[in-house]
Amino acid sequence: MYEDLFKLSGEIAVVIGGAGGIGSAIAEGFSEYGAKVVIADMKLEDAKMVAAGIKERTGGESEAMYVDVTDEVSTAKLRDSILSKFGAVDILVNSQGVNAKHPATEFPLKDWEFLYNVNVKGVMITCREFGKPMVERRKGKIINLSSVRGSRATKWSGNIGYSSTKGAVDMLTRQLAAEWAPYNVNVNAIAPSLVATQTGMGGVITSEHVKMYAETIPMGRIATLRDIVGAALFLASPASDYMTGQIIYVDGGLTAVG
Hints:
Elements: E1 12-16, H1 21-32, E2 36-41, H2 44-58, E3 62-66, H3 72-86, E4 91-94, H4 109-137, E5 140-145, H5 160-180, E6 185-192, H6 200-204, H7 207-214, H8 225-236, E7 247-250, H9 254-257
Parallel strand pairs: 1-2, 1-4, 2-3, 4-5, 5-6, 6-7
């Protein structure tokens, strides 16, 4: 009776920002559970490498495509290409995201606009363009990548830009969920704490930062990619059919106490 709750067999999944650490891990998880995945990214060569790796490891169908999510024409072209090839899009993951840290008294407007273009405008455009065919079919799952910083501030300087964009993503998620619920389109978000990605652990975030951050988390560690993939599989699968408009905190208990 419950054996199909987490199966994605035959589903068409599009992972925006799929060449990144979190996006590529989610795409591979979807492939392992039977989905056909499209890795969409501005870094097309990196996306091709991710797609090839997924094919090799899972044996599933995986393809790389270019997209600039801040460009309406580019995003619509991606959507049309996928619909032409696969006939439908069942799952959309918005894993694109950028950060720039500056004290609030010195935050450059160009960095502020850059963050909002990618993190908010880019999510709105992809949701709009891929939401259209989902609403028409009355079927779809949209998963946005948010952050605990969308609802919780930090004493550490530099986060005003990133945190405010994630707060916007949270409300975008809830509003779309409310509008599209009658059409059987679920819109949810995953909000992790710090995640151990290759980029994050390669010098941008030092071991000292990780240790300091982990001390604030009840579980005593930062999130792994496996933690994020588990939440994404749940939100993409039939197991979450009655959930929409939710921000899922994959944070080791951080938001429970902070």
